[in-house]
Design brief:
The complex is a heterodimer of chains A (109) and B (141). Chain A has 109 residues and is an alpha/beta fold. Chain A is 37% helix and 28% strand. Chain A has helices spanning 20-37, 54-69, 84-89; strands at residues 2-5, 9-18, 41-52, 73-77. A four-stranded mixed beta sheet of chain A has the order 1-2-3-4, with helices on one face. In chain A, helix 1 packs parallel to helix 2. Chain A is globular. Chain A starts with a strand and ends in a 20-residue tail after the last helix. Chain B is α+β, with helices and mostly antiparallel strands and 141 residues long. Chain B has a single domain (2-133), classed as 2-Layer Sandwich (Heat Shock Protein 90), CATH 3.30.565. Chain B is 33% helix and 27% strand. Chain B is built from four helices and five strands, in the order βααββααββ. A five-stranded antiparallel beta sheet of chain B has the order 1-2-3-5-4, with helices on one face. In chain B, helix 1 packs antiparallel against helix 2 and helix 2 (30-51) runs antiparallel to helix 4. The longest helix of chain B has 22 residues, at 30-51. The radius of gyration of chain B is 15 Å and the shape is globular. Chain B starts with a strand and ends in an 8-residue tail after the last strand. Classes of the chains: A alpha/beta (109), B alpha+beta (141). The A-B interface holds A 17, 19-24, 27, 51-55, 57-59, 61-62, 82, 85-86, 89-91 and B 9-10, 12-13, 30-31, 34, 37-38, 41-42, 45, 48-49, 91-92, 99-102, 104-105, 107-108, 111-112. The structure holds adenosine-5'-triphosphate and magnesium ion. Adenosine-5'-triphosphate sits between chains B (42, 46-47, 49-51, 77, 79-82, 88, 93-96, 101-106, 126) and A (54-55, 58).
Amino acid sequence: MRISEGEEEITAYLSGDIDHHSARDMRESIDAVVQMKKPSLLRLDFSGVKFMDSSGIGLIMGRYRLMALYGGIVRVVNVPDELERMMNLSGLNALDIIERRGVKLEAAK
Amino acid sequence: MNLSFESRSSNEAFARCAVAAFLTQLDPTIGELNDIKTAVSEAVTNCVVHAYKDTIGKVYINVKIEENSLIIIRVRDTGCGIENIKKAMEPLFTTAPSDERAGLGFAVMESFTDRLKVSSKVGRGTTVTFQKRLSCRVGNG
Ligand SMILES: Nc1ncnc2c1ncn2[C@@H]1O[C@H](COP(=O)(O)OP(=O)(O)OP(=O)(O)O)[C@@H](O)[C@H]1O
Ligand SMILES: [Mg+2]
């Protein structure tokens, strides 16, 4: 997983399979950078994700809570079509953090 | 097809890929295969995370191919069991929130398969059975 760091924002490029086993490493890598940089925006880019079970939802929710601690926000971007059903099931839609193609959500308040 | 393995998280990918590999003989669509892999991943993860919490036990998977490309998958553990199955199956219910569990496993299994059945006995273990009929692009049989 690649993480790119800007001044105020961090983007984590998730890739491969996200399950209970792989989510742990992803969580640790992301959190280490977030805790050091305390960015106002954490972008989770799902374009490289081939498979995801509910552990991926836990991963998003956990980062959402962590960012909230610092007054920052999370954006989930480039979700492959195959993962849409999982995202819709999760209730994450209510949080308004998933950026659908062509629909940009407002940046940090 | 029968499979048994230790409840280590590193076996989660193996389990869902083994089931998928077995089912390729039916020529399922990518979407169908993905649905099944997802359901298997949920069931196996529950064995690793909940049934054998803090220990390692055996996970048993049985896959049956019935007539008309109906597949029946059973995932069984001999772990701690579930006290209240109805409650456990409610979306967002989890006993492991600190572990970043979303409480969605059963909801996902239900949504990604045609039918889900859970039986469990506290102290004895849990069996999750789900079935799915494949569209079967090659003629039956
Ligand atoms: N095999 C099992 N053995 C013991 N308890 C289980 C088992 N499977 C599920 N449970 C119980 O049922 C609850 C709900 O399971 P479910 O898979 O829906 O959510 P979760 O595992 O908590 O979260 P998620 O699947 O989203 O990571 C679990 O929190 C656990 O208490
Ligand atoms: Mg689960």
